[in-house]
Design the sequence.
């Protein structure tokens, strides 16, 4: 059995029709997720104008993100793998499950999808600035960073366990649901402290369109570290060394 390894990818992979379709799928899936997720935050801001979001409002935001991510992953699952998140893509990259070439295109598609979703939200809401994420008063930057690392670790670990692990069996059918649920649960846990991003694209789109950059670095560094830890742990410790190993880059016979 060949050893697990990082793969750069073939030079002509970027122009292959299947790769182009997968990149477009990541753009659309991320757009769906960010539009619904950030839209739920803007809607609550409209309802609870100038007042803190209530506990029921927090549940509504978590539910909106969970349902939107469930759909976003499901519609992209058979085309691109339904990453919808640069951190998830990085977690699969360090595990050798996706090539570096494809990861670069996925990252671009995810970020652009998030920006387009945020722009359209601003247009649809008559100029409301996207809120994005920020660290709550009384919560330190270090606390928020560790929180993002832990929550993203749980997310990427769930992705590996339900969608990647060769022993997952019929569990793979509910992978989109499980991924959506862990994000919803993490928002209920971490939302009051730092918004619970777990997704650099989800943070970047609203930050760019809304001009809200305070503590923005946390929503990149935290998720990326958490994703790398989860990817390496699951790939090299949890999955048996004799298990079949495949990655998403196209097989040679597809060219």
Sequence:
């Amino acid at each position: 059995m060949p050893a697990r390894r990082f793969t750069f990818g073939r030079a002509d992979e970027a122009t292959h029709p299947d790769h182009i379709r997968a990149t477009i799928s990541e753009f659309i899936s991320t757009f769906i997720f960010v539009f619904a997720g950030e839209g739920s935050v803007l809607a609550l801001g409209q309802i609870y104008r100038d007042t803190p979001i209530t506990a029921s409002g927090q549940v509504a935001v978590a539910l909106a993100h969970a349902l939107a991510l469930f759909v976003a992953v499901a519609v992209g699952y058979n085309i691109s793998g339904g990453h919808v998140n640069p951190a998830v893509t990085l977690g699969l990259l360090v595990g050798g499950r996706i090539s570096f070439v494809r990861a670069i295109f996925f990252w671009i598609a995810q970020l652009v999808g998030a920006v387009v979703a945020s722009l359209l939200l601003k247009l649809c809401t008559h100029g409301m600035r996207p809120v994005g994420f920020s660290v709550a008063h009384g919560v330190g930057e270090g606390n928020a960073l560790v929180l993002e690392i832990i929550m993203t670790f749980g997310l990427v670990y769930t992705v590996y366990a339900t969608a990647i692990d060769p022993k997952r069996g019929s569990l793979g059918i509910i992978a989109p649901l499980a991924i959506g649920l862990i994000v919803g649960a993490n928002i209920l846990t971490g939302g009051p402290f730092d918004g619970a991003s777990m997704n650099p694209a989800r943070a970047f789109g609203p930050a760019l369109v809304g001009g809200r950059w305070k503590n923005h670095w946390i929503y990149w560094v935290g998720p990326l570290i958490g994703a790398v830890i989860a990817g390496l742990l699951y790939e090299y410790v949890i999955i048996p060394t004799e298990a079949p190993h495949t990655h998403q880059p196209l097989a040679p016979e597809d060219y």
User: Anything to note?
Assistant: Residues 249-255 have pLDDT under 50 and may be disordered. The two ends are 24 Å apart (CA to CA). The helical segments are 17-47, 55-76, 86-94, 100-124, 141-164, 175-194, 200-210, 218-238.
